[in-house]
Amino acid sequence: MNFIGIIPARFQSTRFPGKPLAHLGEKPIIQWVYENAKKALDEVYVATDDERIYQAVEAFGGKAVYTSANHQSGTDRCAEAAQKLSGHLKFEVVVNIQGDEPFIKAEQIEGLKDCFLSPETEIATLIKPITNAAEITNINRPKVVINKNQEAIYFSRSPIPFVRDFKPEEWISRNTFYSHIGMYAYRFDILLELTKLPISILEKAESLEQLRWLENGYRIKTAQTLYENIGIDTPEDLEEARKFLK
Length: 246
Description:
The chain is an alpha/beta fold. It contains ten helices and eleven strands. Strands 1, 4, 5, 6, 7, 8, 9, 10 and 11 form a nine-stranded mixed sheet that branches. It is globular and about 60 Å long.
């Protein structure tokens, strides 16, 4: 099976304009992401609507593709890029790699790829066992519950599952909790279908795009990772990443 990695990257950001081009060490963030993705994928493209990002990617020897400025999500941007690239590249699966996580591991991408050893897999994503009790109640860290086939049943900003008869601080020792790591892989045909789905009730409630897919009957296979990715959403996050790099 052939895979392609696509890194959605836009210049405009409410909390951190120009984030992909901000320097971490001697390289812009987008270069870190691209080079780490290339460790697991032969074909990787940055999908952007901004000439500055496009030129920066080409300057470090990467590949980029222009996409519309009107996309509401990285999934939509990935779909447009994949459609454009499908004219001259052969691939069955698209890996959507977050453009603001410079320290992604090749092993994480390989975990997603392994999910497609099963011909039944439509969508795959990463999950991580929670070891810090405070993370269970952190609304900025979506949680996920899975079935015996390692498929996602539900994603929520609330603690799931609720552990009855025990105090919240005891839950982590009474049940296994998973946080969701926002990296996805989709069969190309499924990705195109996802972009045609209307916003759903649960998605609106939780502000989690993947709930739209579950509500419409799509199955999301999960792969476990033990690595904690560092997402850069603000200038303060960048400073923390710089400390981590040192």
